[in-house]
C-alpha cells in the first residue's frame, strides 16, 4: 500500500516584498505548488516540486491585492524554468543560435524550441561595450540599391560595435559625440562619413581603410599598365627564329584605360560582317536573329549592327574617354 506523497519543499522566509510598491508583507493569502524545470542531471530532465505562498499587500494604494513570493536565484515571475536553466539555455543560444542550440539542448535533456532559445537570448541585458579607440565606419544594405545603414566596427578587436539605421552624417556625428575617446576613424571616401566624423569627433584622425588603399592602388596600376602596354612590349626580348608579331590595330586605335578583350572584339567583327551579309541577301531582322544560332542577339542588337558602318565595341568608361563613350573596332 503506497503512502501519501512527500510534502513539497517551501521557502522559510517570514514574508516577501510586494513587486508593485515594495511594501513588506507577511500575511499569507494562500499557497500552491509550482513545477519549474531545472538543469538536467545525467541526461534526464529535472523538474522541481516547490510550494510557494501568495501574500496580501497591506498598502491600500497599491494596485496589487495579492502577490506570489519568488525565491532569489531560483524562480522568477511567470517563469517555467529556473534561473540556472535559463542561463544555460541563453549561453547555448549565444554560441549556436536558435536551431542548432535547440538540437543540443534536446540531446542533454532540456527539450526546448528554437524560438524559446532566441527569446532567452533576446531577454539578456545589453553588454557594456567599451568605447573603441580606432573606429571603422562603413555602409551596409538592408535592400541593395535602396536602403542603406551604417555599421561601426572596433578595428582593434574586429568586432561590430553598433548599427545605425541610415548613413546620414548627422546620425554618425551624434553617435561619435557621445564617445569622446575615439582617436582614429577608419572610413571609405564617402562624403557623408567624412562630414559626420569631422563634426562628431573633431579630435580624431580620419584615415582610409586598408581594403580601399589596396583597391585604389590596383585600379591605378591596371590603368597605368593598360595605357603603356605598347612600351612594355619593347622590354620583352625577341626569341631567335620567331617572327615578330604584328601589333593588333584594335589595340593601337584603342584609347581605353582598361585592357580590351580580343575574343570579344573578334566576335563583334564576325557578327557585324554576318549581319551585313544577311541584310544584302534580303533577310529581315527576325530571320537574321534566327540564323545567327548560338549568339542569339536581340532585335535591337541586330538593328544597331545593321545601321553601323563599322563594328562597335561595348561602351567603356574612364578619365580619358569621359563618362560613357562608344569605341570603334576597325
CATH class descriptor of the largest domain:
Alpha Beta
Continuous helix count: 10
CA gyration radius, whole angstroms: 37 Å
Number of domains: 4
- In the sheet with the most strands, the strands line up as 10-9-8-11-12
Distance between the terminal alpha carbons, to the nearest Å?
107 Å
Determine the CATH superfamily of the largest domain.
Answer: Ribonuclease H-like superfamily/Ribonuclease H
Structural class: alpha+beta
Q: Report the sheet with the most strands, covering strand number, pairing sense and barrel closure.
A: 5 strands, mixed
The coarse silhouette is elongated
Number of strands: 14
CATH topology of the largest domain: Nucleotidyltransferase, domain 5
Secondary-structure topology with pairs:
Blueprint: E1 16-17, E2 24-25, E3 28-34, E4 37-41, E5 44-47, E6 50-56, E7 66-68, H1 83-107, H2 114-122, E8 134-143, E9 147-154, E10 159-164, H3 169-177, E11 184-187, H4 191-200, E12 205-208, H5 210-227, H6 229-235, H7 249-253, H8 262-280, H9 285-291, H10 299-307, E13 316-318, E14 322-325
Helix pairs in contact: 1-2, 3-4
Describe the model:
With 330 residues, the protein is α+β, with helices and mostly antiparallel strands. It folds into 4 domains: 8-72, no CATH class; 81-125; 134-208, Ribonuclease H-like superfamily/Ribonuclease H (Nucleotidyltransferase, domain 5); 253-325. The chain has 10 helices and 14 strands. It has helices at 83-107, 114-122, 169-177, 191-200, 210-227, 229-235, 249-253, 262-280, 285-291, 299-307; strands at 16-17, 24-25, 28-34, 37-41, 44-47, 50-56, 66-68, 134-143, 147-154, 159-164, 184-187, 205-208, 316-318, 322-325. A 5-stranded mixed beta sheet has the order 10-9-8-11-12. Strand 1 and strand 2 form a beta hairpin. The longest helix is centred in the first third of the chain and has 25 residues, at 83-107. It starts with 15 loop residues before the first strand and ends in a 5-residue tail after the last strand. Mean pLDDT is 80; it is low at 244-259 and 313-330.
Amino acid at each position: 500500500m503506497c503512502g501519501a506523497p512527500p510534502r513539497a519543499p517551501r521557502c522559510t522566509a517570514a514574508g516577501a516584498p510586494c513587486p508593485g510598491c515594495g511594501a513588506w508583507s507577511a500575511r499569507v493569502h494562500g499557497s500552491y505548488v509550482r513545477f519549474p524545470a531545472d538543469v538536467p542531471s545525467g541526461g534526464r530532465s529535472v523538474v522541481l516540486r516547490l510550494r510557494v505562498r501568495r501574500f496580501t499587500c497591506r498598502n491600500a494604494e497599491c494596485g496589487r491585492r495579492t502577490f506570489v513570493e519568488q525565491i532569489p536565484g531560483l524562480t522568477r515571475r511567470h517563469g517555467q524554468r529556473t534561473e540556472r536553466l535559463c542561463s544555460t539555455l541563453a549561453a547555448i543560444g549565444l554560441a549556436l543560435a536558435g536551431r542548432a542550440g535547440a538540437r543540443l539542448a534536446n540531446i542533454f535533456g532540456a527539450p526546448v524550441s528554437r524560438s524559446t532559445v532566441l527569446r532567452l537570448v533576446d531577454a539578456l541585458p545589453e553588454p557594456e561595450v567599451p568605447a573603441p579607440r580606432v573606429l571603422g565606419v562603413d555602409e551596409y544594405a538592408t535592400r541593395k540599391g535602396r536602403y542603406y545603414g551604417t555599421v561601426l566596427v572596433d578595428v582593434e578587436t574586429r568586432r561590430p560595435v553598433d548599427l545605425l539605421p541610415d548613413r546620414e552624417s548627422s546620425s554618425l556625428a551624434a553617435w561619435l559625440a557621445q564617445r569622446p575617446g575615439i582617436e582614429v576613424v577608419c572610413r571609405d571616401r564617402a562624403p557623408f562619413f567624412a562630414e559626420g566624423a569631422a563634426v562628431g569627433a573633431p579630435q580624431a584622425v580620419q584615415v582610409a581603410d586598408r581594403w580601399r588603399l589596396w583597391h585604389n592602388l590596383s585600379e591605378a596600376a591596371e590603368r597605368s599598365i593598360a595605357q603603356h602596354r605598347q612600351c612594355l612590349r619593347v622590354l620583352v626580348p625577341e626569341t631567335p627564329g620567331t617572327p615578330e608579331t604584328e601589333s593588333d590595330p584594335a589595340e593601337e586605335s584603342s584609347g581605353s584605360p582598361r585592357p580590351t578583350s580580343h575574343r570579344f572584339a573578334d566576335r563583334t567583327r564576325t557578327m557585324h560582317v554576318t549581319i551585313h551579309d544577311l541584310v544584302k541577301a534580303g533577310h529581315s531582322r527576325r530571320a537574321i536573329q534566327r540564323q545567327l544560332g548560338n549568339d542569339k542577339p536581340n532585335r535591337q542588337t541586330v538593328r544597331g549592327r545593321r545601321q553601323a558602318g563599322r563594328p562597335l565595341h561595348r561602351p567603356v568608361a574612364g578619365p580619358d574617354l569621359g563618362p560613357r563613350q562608344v569605341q570603334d573596332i576597325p
